[in-house]
Amino acid sequence: MKSGANYNRRRFIKLAALASLAVPVLNACRQKIAATLVRLTGTRHVLGHRLWAKDFHEPVEVITVPYLVIGGGISGLSAARQLSQKGITDFLVIEMENRAGGNASNGENKYSKYPLGAHYLPLPNLHDRELIRFLHESNIITGFDANGLPVFDEEQLSFDPQERLYYRNAWQEDLVPRYGNTPEQDVRIASFFAEMKRFREGRAENGRFWFDLPIAQASPNAEVKGLDTLTMKQWMDNNSFTEESLQEYVDYCCRDDYGLGIAGVSAWAGIHYFAARKNSVYNKDSVLTWPEGNARLASHLKEYTKDKLLLNYLAYSVKPEGNGVTVLAYNADKKRSVRIHADKVIMATPQFVNQYIINGRKGFTKSFTYAPWMLATLTLLDLPSDGSYPLCWDNVIYKGKGLGYIYDQQQALNQLNDRIVITYYYSFPDIDTKKSRKELYRRNAAYWKEFVLADLEKAHPNLRDYCDEIEVCRLGHGMISPVPGFITSNEKQQAALPIDDKIFFAHSDLSGISVFEEAFHQGITAVNQMLHGTTVDS
After folding, report:
1. For 495-538, how does the pLDDT look when each residue is reduced to its tens digit (9 = 90+)?
2. Contacting residues for 161 by C-beta, under 8 A, at least 6 apart
3. Span 195-206, mean pLDDT?
4. What dihedral do alpha carbons 106, 110, 112, 114 form, nearest 10°?
């Protein structure tokens, strides 16, 4: 792992190498800032919206396969891995986009890869044996020590320095507001984390944790179940956790994982963020990350789909018929429909899509809330800073509109880059996610460019003078948001039930939170249900 001192030396060398060019290049950059390249990208929502109209031609091709997985996100790719590990090779995966991975996708320019969604994976719980097995087979875990603890590839653990917060006009280490606090403030913050520790360590009589990943492995008591009836903001207020900086931090955490803040998500979800992961056993404060984010994990899973993955295929009808399932799909490349006959199908697609593909789904799907997201990747000549704390992997601005930015080149061994590449994240604060979704697509590239630069300039004055390029990625249904009542709802349970022992469901929205661990286990569970009528991960 790279130390903070090594980082500073690399940065000094880089700045020295560029010093002789900095003034003329910067002047040229200032002259051309009005022409900064701005691109809009995102999911193929226009093609997806054809599900409403169903204006597809009759199929001209027939495909027959025993097992079909619809959706090439993490859940679909995980299902492919599980099928392969069960010795089943006669299956297909179809995906609407021109790449697999879903929210674990990435882009790339000549300076760096960068995420177009999820960008890290916390260290796994030791009892999550299936996830540890996958990380081991992917050489992310290189072995195990004498105590049985996983040994992680150092180059895939986030390099130091890891996190900083722009707070009170200076950068500080860590994301919890610390510097300048009164002793009373620190006591209240410590009290909150002590309560989170209680929830993290809490167990039922059967030995299972109250909070766990995947959620299906948890065994909540009455107190924990009751947390789903109120918002995280209400719970914090009721328990005297009213310190402004603390609520701001927890709001950031909820927006980061759920798309909505403490006024929008349930107290169960807010506490789950702090209580579900038990990785203190590793004695290290780190996460797994890569320049391309979780697209690296998707690439390992895609190894199980060689010659079995059909991209640019939009499934628009799924019906149980006879002894199997008939699927109609549109091949966007050839602009023609195909008919797929499968014995059994796994729907690794979100429920807002399934309601237009399978009859009878709209009644309970309306209970699912999806938060829109906007990401912006900036290519910079340099990144001006006040020198209070060095550039980190994760950089957050206190009370910023967005969630801060990731330094995409943090993991690069060669730090002498001609440009700096960062990815900014924004989740919409409005609880009315439909309204936010309309705003996301209504605003043009110029608007989002100004929005991003203005937010980042709170910590980096004149950032626009250094900016070469901005790519704005829009995700209309970025992630499921666990609003109060959803985690324990009948609708969520109904949506996960198989149909006629032929159609099975796998997606992180069925768990209620959009994180890699849930999506990964959803794929495994669906395969096990389909083959054995069990949800045991094996």
Report:
1. 999 999 999 999 999 999 999 999 999 999 999 999 987 555 54
2. 4, 7, 173, 389, 390, 391, 392, 393
3. 97
4. -20
Contact 380, 423 (CB under 8 A): no
> pLDDT band for position 178 (50/70/90)?
confident
Is-contact 97 353, C-beta < 8 A? no
Residue 324: strand pairing partners: 321
Number of residues in the chain: 538
pLDDT at 23 over 60: no
CA-to-CA distance for 189 and 495, rounded, in angstroms?
39
Instruction: With CA atoms as reference, report the closest residue to 257 among 273, 278, 271.
Output: 273
Report the distance separating Cα 260 and Cα 237, nearest Å: 18
Q: For residue 107, what are its two tokens? A: 């882009």
Global pTM? 0.91
Q: Which residue matches tokens 């979704």?
A: 437
Reported as type and span, the H/E element at residue 365 is helix 362-365
Three-state secondary structure call for residue 447: helix
Tokens of 327: 């699927």
Report how far residue 175's alpha carbon sits from residue 394's, in angstroms, rounded to the nearest whole number.
Answer: 9
Instruction: For residues 367 and 265, give the distance between their C-alpha atoms in angstroms, rounded to a whole number.
Output: 14
Cα–Cα distance, 119 to 300 (Å, whole number): 15
Provide the mean pLDDT of the chain.
Answer: 90
> Which contiguous run of DSSP H or E holds residue 374?
strand 370-380
Query: Where does the pLDDT of residue 43 fall: very low under 50, low under 70, confident under 90, or very high at 90 and above?
Result: low
CA atoms within 13 A on the CB side of 75: 27
Neighbours of 66 (CB within 10 A): 14
Phi, psi of 245 (to 5 degrees): -65, -35
Q: Which residues pair with 167 in a beta bridge?
A: 170
Q: How far is CA 362 from the centre of its chain?
A: 25
> Between vectors from CA 110 to CA 108 and to CA 112, what angle results, nearest 5°?
55
Tokens (6 digits) for 273: 């963020």
Question: To which H or E segment does residue 95 belong?
Answer: strand 91-95
Quick check: helix, strand or coil at residue 317?
A: strand
Q: Which residues pair with 473 in a beta bridge?
A: 41, 375
pLDDT range class, residue 37, cuts 50, 70, 90: confident
The full 3-state SS of 463-513, as one line of letters, equals: HHHHEEEEEEEEEEEEEECCCCCCCCCHHHHHHCCCECCCEEECCHHHCCC
Beta bridge partners of 342: 65, 325
Distance (Å, rounded) from C-alpha 423 to C-alpha 218? Answer: 34
CB 180 within 8 A of CB 170: no
Q: Which residues pair with 298 in a beta bridge?
A: none
Question: The tokens of 98 are what?
Answer: 């021109």
DSSP state of 123: P
Tell me the sheet residues that pair with 203: 209
Considering only the C-alpha atoms of the chain, give the largest distance between any 2 of them, rounded to a whole number of Å: 74
Q: Distance between CA 357 and CA 315 in Å, rounded?
A: 7
